[in-house]
Amino acid sequence: MANTGKHVVFDVVGTCVSYEAFFEGIEARMGDRLRAEGIKPRLFGFAWMEAAERECSYLDRSGRYVPFWNVFQPLFYRILWMAGIEEPRKFATDEDAAFMVGEYRKLKGRPGVQECWARLRKAGFTVWAVTSGDAVRVQSYLASNGIELPTENFVTCDTLGIVKPDPGVYKYVLDKFDGAEEKWFAAAHMWDTAAAKHCGQVN
């Protein structure tokens, strides 16, 4: 139990790594086709991601945990249809979807992440990460971007069977350092930081 000292917990996807590689993959594979139909590729990608996050979250609330990866690609044609494509399976292929999902596996670190973590550690903080993504994929994001994190400081919802913002996720992490001098939670998503603060004495 790391119940002393100073600790900061980071969200990873969308916070420490950006979605640009995914958006660039959509642009490369289908950019011209989408624009010809009046659909902005970046907005399409955002809608696709957000729909997948919602599906995972709502399934979790219903008592059934389903990993993000299991719902992400299957939603591809639905998002095309909702964007106004009347025959999505004639407009695009499974190979198109697989290519873009593959690019999602190659997300890059945001500028300054390594330096940020190094400064925090130099200031006496222990750095943690918690993610709703699967361990292999998200740990590969960190490793491929040279972002070092001990395995014991990495928490994935896959091992918990629940997803953020379920209070159990934050409680599981924060309980690891219940008596710490300082506890911080860092995320680019307001709902994420709000949920963490609601679940414990965290800055």
From TrEMBL:
Keywords of this entry: Hydrolase
Statement: the UniProt record of this protein carries the keyword Hydrolase: yes
Highest rank taxon of the organism: Eukaryota
GO MF annotations, alphabetized: phosphatase activity
Name used for this protein in its record: 2-haloalkanoic acid dehalogenase
Species the sequence originates in: Talaromyces atroroseus
Lineage: Eukaryota, Fungi, Dikarya, Ascomycota, Pezizomycotina
